[in-house]
Amino acid sequence: MAITSQIRPADSADSAAGQVTPAVRLTGLTKKYKAVTAVDALDLTLEPGQVVALLGPNGAGKSTTVDMMLGLTRPTSGQIALFGQSVRQAADAGMVGAMLQNSQLPDDVTVAELVNLYAGLHRKPLPLDLVLDRAGIADLAKRRTAKLSGGQKQRVRFALAIVADPRLLVLDEPTAAMDVQSRRDFWAAMRRLTGGGRTIIFATHYLEEADEFADRIVLLRAGKVVADGSGAQIKSAVSGRQVAATVPGATLQSLAGLPGVEEATLVGDRATMRCSDSDAAIRALLPAYPQATDIEIRSLGLEEAFLALTTEEAK
Ligand SMILES: Nc1ncnc2c1ncn2[C@@H]1O[C@H](COP(=O)(O)OP(=O)(O)OP(=O)(O)O)[C@@H](O)[C@H]1O
Question: Taking the C-alpha atoms of 151, 152, 158 and 159 in order, what is their torsion angle to the nearest 10 degrees?
């Protein structure tokens, strides 16, 4: 599929030309679990100050990518540089803060005690009040963690992630347990943080969340980047039309290769083609298959088109 190259090369040329060291540079990053390739030769460069969403369905490789960036899982091959340093060096220097899916919080401490405990692990932690304030949990300082709601726990995890004032925040589905208002508050806090030039990469299942809060969306499927661009670019790339037709004798390969066709499926003689240009597709289909009948064209909604882009393709 050509969407990645239409929008922007996965590895932006800006950083090569400019002086700025990328916040994140992943090169050929690969993780295999026996037969499963969870992350497949991923190349990705993040400029400092970007808020980037790693968007994709279950099993796309988001968590594995995040875990490798945090040194929790070793890559099978490929390289990771964070501000030009190794994962270990960047972590030791307090450059990286992380918020992981479902990480456990100890039960028998207050929020302030827990944040202080984490602060003690770092050489130059931020003052407690500032951390609590930035995470929007100043009013929860004396609350025991066992008494927190799911969304409040997420904000405490966020406080722990920012304790060392990291330049890069890596967040795996940070708003998973939050209601709409908490989600908005969370991202408002994030925006205040990134005002200071911090880089954020977060994993999410939700196109809407990625569109609303990220400067850039990297769409993953089966461990590969299938699209990379701003929310508007991704939306225009994924929206399109679907052409269905009964095409006796057609092969999947020939249908997928028609101009304007992004992806094709064939069930018996019934072909369904997701098109970037449905007019071009039909103009090419008819001379190639004059026997085609029952042709239908319909517009794909955004969510539907997104799903089409993130499920297995035939091309
Ligand atoms: N420890 C593991 N052992 C074997 N396979 C794994 C392991 N961790 C992940 N995988 C596989 O790697 C692929 C990518 O998984 P990953 O958790 O990175 O996806 P994801 O995009 O984060 O999905 P989700 O949104 O469900 O968290 C999946 O096929 C998953 O089953």
Answer: 170
Q: Is 273 in the pocket of ligand 1 (CB under 6 A)?
A: no
Name the residue at shortest CA distance from atom 26 of ligand 1: 58
In the reported structure, the alpha carbon of residue 256 is separated from the centroid of ligand 1 by a whole-number distance in angstroms of 29
Full-model pTM: 0.76
Domains (ranges, CATH) in the chain? Answer: 3-236 (3.40.50.300), 240-299 (3.30.70)
109 Cα to the center of ligand 1, angstroms: 32
Residue 63 CA, ligand 1 centroid: distance in Å? 7
ipTM of the complex: 0.96
Tens-of-pLDDT digits for all 315 residues of the chain?
A: 434 433 443 344 444 455 789 999 999 999 999 999 999 999 999 999 899 999 988 889 999 999 999 999 999 999 999 999 999 999 988 899 998 877 788 888 999 999 999 998 888 899 999 999 988 899 999 999 999 988 888 889 999 999 999 999 999 988 887 788 888 888 887 777 767 778 999 999 888 888 888 999 999 989 999 889 888 777 766 667 889 999 999 999 999 999 999 889 999 999 999 888 889 999 999 999 999 999 999 877 666 667 766 765 434
User: What is the C-alpha to C-alpha distance for residues 122 and 286, in angstroms, rounded to an integer?
Assistant: 67
C-beta of 38 in contact with ligand 1 (< 6 A): yes
DSSP state at residue 140: G
CA distances from 206 to 14, 189, 218, 277 (A): 28, 19, 12, 26
Distance 169 CA to ligand 1 centre (A): 21
